[in-house]
Every structure is written in C-alpha cells, then in structure tokens.
Amino acid sequence: MTESLSLSALIMFIFGTIVCYGGLLYFLYRAFKGRRK
Amino acid sequence: MAAIGSAVGLGNVWRFPYIAYNNGGGAFLIPYFIALFTAGIPMLILEFTLGHWGRSAPPEAYRKIGRKWEWVGWWSSLVPFVITAYYVVIMAWCFAYMIFAIDLRWGTTTESFFLEKFLGVTSGPLSIGGIQIPALLALIIMWISIFLILYKGIARIGKVVLISVPVAWILFVILAIRGVTLPGAMTGINYYLTPDFSRLLDVNVWLAAYGQVFFSLSLAQGIMISYASYLHKKSDLSNNAFITALADTGTSFLAGFAVFSVVGYLALMQGIGIEQLKITGPSLTFITYPTAISLFPVAAGLFGILFYLALFTFGLDSAFSMIEPITSGIQTKWRFTKGKATALICFLGFLSSIIFITGGGLYWLEIVDQFISNFGLVLVGLVECLIIGWVFHLPRLRSHANKTSDIRIGRWWDLLIKYIIPLVLTSLLLIAVYDLLITPPTYPLEALLIGGATPCIIVFILSFFFVRIKGKKEGSR
C-alpha cells in the first residue's frame, strides 16, 4: 500500500486544480470587475 | 448561483470519479476539459442566450423561434420531470441515511440493510412488492420541501441556493480533507489520478467525456433556458456559462478526492483491492460508503451525517431546478399562479415517484434512468442543436449574447453548435442503441418496454399534446 501520491498523479492533480479552480477564480474576477464598471 | 446549484448534483459525486477512473484516470481530465470547452460551455451559452432572448419558459422561448417548434420546449421540460420522479427518491434515501448515520443504524451488514431492510428489494422489476414506510415518509418530506421552495417563485429559489450551494461545497471540502487524512487514502487517490495516456487513443474515452459533460451540466432539460429567462437584461451570458461549467467541474474534481480517499481506506481496512469495491451509483452511496463510515476511528456518525447532508443539499438544488421548466411552462401558457402550477406538478411528481419506493423500485429506477439518460436527453440535445443551428438564424442569437457579454463569441460557436455537437450527440446515440442491441438484457423485455421505452414515448407525445391545448394569452417575463 502506497502512502504518498505518485508523481504522475501529482501532475494531474496540479493540472486539474489550475484549470478548474484557477479558471473559476479568473471568471469570477471578470464578473466582479464587470459589475464594478 | 441557481444554475450552479442545478448543474451540481449527485452525478458529480457518484458518476464523475468512477468515469474518470474507468477512462484513463488523471488522463481523462484532458478529454473532459476539451469536451467542456467544445461542447459543454457552447451549449450552456446557447441555452442561457435562448432563455435570455426569449425571456420566458422553454415552450414559449421555442415558440418565439417558430410556432411549430413549441413542442421542443415542452419536450425538454417534460424529460427532467421524469428524471425528478426518481431523483427525488434518491434524495429521500439520502435524507433517511442522514438520520440513520446518527447511530450508524446500517451496522456491519450495509448491503442487506440497504437492499432488504430499507428498500425491501424483490427478485425483479415485475415483482412490485410493498412500500417501505421510512422511504415513503422521506419521500413525502422531499416533495413538500420542493413545493415550499418553488411555490413562491424565483425569489425564494435565489435565497435557498445562496445558502445551500456554499454550504454543500464547504461540507465537501471538509469531507475531502477528512478523507485524505485517513490511512490508505493515497492508494485510492492514486487510482483516481494516475494517468494512462494510452487511453486517449480510444474513441470511447472521448465519447465518455462528452457524455459526462453533457449530463453533468443539466443540458437539454430546459433548466438553463428557464433560469436564464429571469436574468437581468444586462447579465453577462458567456461569463455566467464559464462560471457555471467550471464550478460544476470543480465540484466533480473535488468529489473524486472525497470518494477515492474513503474507498482507499476501506480497501486497506478490508485487505482487498479497490477494483473489488463498488464505486459508482447507489451502491457507492448506500453500501460502500456506509461500510467505510462504520470503520472510522473517530466521529463516524458525524462524518456520515455531513456526507449525506452534503449529498442531500446538492441533490435538492438539482431536484427543484428540474421541476422549474415544466412549472413555469404551465404557468405561462395557462396563466396558472406559481403556487397552483407548483402544487399540481409536485403532486403528479409524488404519484410518479411511488413506483420507485416499492420493492421493485430499484430496478425501475435503473431502467428509467438508463433510457432517459441515454436516449431522452441526448435526443433532446440533438434536436435543440439542429433547430437552433439550422432553422433559427444562429448569428442573431450570437449577437444577442455578445451585446451583454464581456467575452465575445465568434463564428467558432456557430461551427460547434451546427456540426461538432450534433456529431458527438449522434455518436452517443448510436453507441447507446448498439449497446442495447448487443448486450444481453438484464431485465425482462416487458420491463424494458414499460419502464424504458414508454416514458420516453409518452413524454414525446405529451409535448405535442400540450401544444394543441389552447392556452390563455401568453406573455413573457
């Protein structure tokens, strides 16, 4: 039984996190910026 | 927020992690994101724009495209109504399990507790059996909750989702954090995320990605059209589509950690491989997860309550959103009050749900779900793309979206709606037909005809029938 994340799984974790949550934060930022205009 | 609440549902928790694991693990994220950006988001923009442009319920919005297309609006509103009939039953199970979690009532025999004691499952769909009282009580509570949320209209929906969506998210973050701190959790997460890039050459993996995006975003159910009709005239449609799609994907991605960490823990505790555990659908939620919860070293009951509360909250937002299109369609066409239309639909929904809490209910649920998801939704989506792409002047809809949107949509959008998405949906449909023909049926033919084909045909015929019934003077929001 492994108790650490494999390197390839870690890379996919970072990739998924950046696209999902980075993207979400970016579009939320655009929405708030648009609302302030 | 209501659109996010609608998109995020049980599918994010019990379908996405399993589909990802089965289709290349972490590598599945690549086709999934491509599907999201080439089909999910363009379709969301389409539905948001149609609802915003038509400023009315789906039947009326399609009527504005052309009188002869009103039936498509009714069709896309009736399909989610059928889904709600069994979706609410699953919500009722979650609600009941939330209470059972207090004293871990399922004990050590989770499978027999769920199937025999709680559901009273019979030998097959044609043997209906009795109705279990706890499930019936939970079902009544569910339908009353949906009625109370919906009958006052969009203002109350707005208030509910403003609390329920963030609460469900916070709960899932807590569950994921607790999950990854359990022994064996990393083994489970490695199963979930380790990429197998060779699977990217398999066309079925790509179709699975498109299928998952399509179902997960509540597309072709009239929901997004209905919600968008309430949006402010100056709402940024394309940005809203991106936010909804990424919030939904983010939830699925997070759910994978909550699911696989606990599955890894259970595999370690039982000394078996993860592949031997049931990690999808009702089996994951009501058999595998309770088994793992019972083995938790501390605060097992609390973890159970939080898990079922999170599922219940996610599901509730989706459940009432699926009722909204047909309710507002009836309200607009026959000038019913919101309360009257909601009461009528909730009552009919409750009656339709009863079959799913009988002893044969679990089988019927599986049959209806398979047919409605594989054929009903895909067909509605295909017709939606063909009518809007080929009959309606698509650049007109695009310019409507661009008027209020920060992110300008180009001609690429027309290309996706007219060619790419119909091609993908046709492939999904052909694969579903092929699977149906070559796979030996699990259920008797009469059960497949009654539970699978009949609801799809009835819904299709009813959509024409609703057009024929004369409505009162129709208006828009």
Bin the strand percentage of chain A. Answer: under 5%
Strand tally of chain A, please?
Answer: 0
Number of helices of chain A: 1
- How helical, in percent, are the residues of chain B? over 70%
Q: How far is the N terminus from the C terminus of chain A?
A: 54 Å
Topology order of chain B in helix (H) and strand (E) letters: HHHHHHHHHHHHHHHHHHHH
List keywords for this structure.
heterodimer; A: 37 residues; mainly alpha; 1 helix; 81% helix; B: 477 residues; 20 helices; 75% helix; globular
Describe the overall structure:
Chain A is mostly helical and 37 residues long. In chain A, 81% of the residues lie in helices and 0% in strands. Chain A contains 1 helix and no strands. The radius of gyration of chain A is 16 Å and the shape is rod-shaped. The N and C termini of chain A lie far apart (54 Å). Chain B has 477 residues and is mainly alpha-helical. Chain B is built from 20 helices and no strands. In chain B, helix 6 runs antiparallel to helix 15 and helix 6 crosses helix 16. The longest helix of chain B is centred in the middle third of the chain and has 35 residues, at 300-334. Chain B starts with a helix and ends in a 9-residue tail after the last helix. The mean pLDDT of chain B is 86. At the A-B interface, helix 1 of A face helix 10 and helix 13 of B.
